[in-house]
Each structure stands twice: as structure tokens, then as C-alpha cells.
């Protein structure tokens, strides 16, 4: 091992917890080569490939939403509301996995575009609840079929078994990373 490799390992060990250091420790010479090749070629890393896949999905989705003047951000809120209206802004934020200020900003633009309206319900004067307008509801049958073709385009040439395996693998990655943050 070179002096540079030793220095990197020493600095890494100081900078991370014992548990994290265990994750970085190669388990075999083959694993060490894999780690070094991934470090040397970032375009081979899982994070990079997933980021690039997400960017490609976003570009493809935006091109399908453009004729209706809907942004990708608005799309995700519409998808949630097409499933269930009358959610509080807080619940909508929670379901979307975004901060409440982000939700407020997005919903404000959607109100201006007459896609949704925010109302108070009954005795609860503190919370605002989100409802689709007739225009927001009508977009569903026009936009949804076109937008869903992005998944079809991405999976072109994959068997149903491969798509199922990919979904399972990505779900497992997500859980692994969520567990890693705990």
C-alpha cells in the first residue's frame, strides 16, 4: 500500500465513526479493487447513475407536461391530490417528503394557476386544506396518460421480471440508506 493510501485510510478513520469506518474497510482484494475503480471513475458509482437516471426522468416528464404548462414540482402535488383531496398543507408536505415552506410556495403558484384552492374546514381555523379546482381535476385525464409513458420509455427493452427486480433493488437501497441515517 502506498503512503498516500495509508494517509487516506488514516484520515478516513479519524473522520468517521467506528461503524462507518467498518463500511469503508475492504473485505477482500476484489472489493478493494472495486472501491478504487469506483472512486477513480465517478460515472460508475451507484449515486451518480441514479442521479443521472433521475435527471433523465425529470427531463422526459417535463417535456410531456409542457403542453399543459405544468412543472414537474406541480405534477407531484397534483398526483397526490388526484388520489385524495382535502389534505392539510402539513399532511401534503409529509406525504410528499418536502418541507412545509416548499409546499406553501408550490401551492401558492398552483392557486394562481387555478389548479387548486386552499380552504379552512369546520371549526379548525388554523389549518388550510387543499382541494382541486374543476380545472385541476380535468387535467388528470389529459395529462396522466401522457406523463405515465415516461416509465414505459425508461423500461423499454426490460422484461417484467427485470422491472420487478429493479424496483425491489431500488427499494432495498432506499431502506439501506434510510437505516444508515438512523
Question: What does the model show?
Answer:
The protein has helices at 3-15, 18-24, 29-40, 46-65, 72-83, 89-96, 100-112, 134-154, 160-181, and strands spanning 87-88, 116-121, 124-132. 70% of the residues lie in helices and 9% in strands. The chain contains 9 helices and 3 strands, in the order αααααβααββαα. Helix 4 packs across helix 8 (134-154) and helix 6 packs across helix 7 (100-112). The protein has a 3-stranded antiparallel beta sheet. Strand 2 and strand 3 form a beta hairpin. With 182 residues, it is mainly α.
Secondary structure topology:
Blueprint: H1 3-15, H2 18-24, H3 29-40, H4 46-65, H5 72-83, E1 87-88, H6 89-96, H7 100-112, E2 116-121, E3 124-132, H8 134-154, H9 160-181
Antiparallel strand pairs: 1-3, 2-3
Gyration radius from CA atoms, angstroms: 22 Å
- Report the major sheet: 3 strands, antiparallel
Total beta-strand segments: 3
Count of separate DSSP helical elements: 9
Succession of helices and strands:
HHHHHEHHEEHH
Quick summary:
The protein has 182 residues and is mainly alpha-helical.
Keywords:
three-stranded antiparallel sheet; 182 residues; mainly alpha; single chain; globular; 3 strands
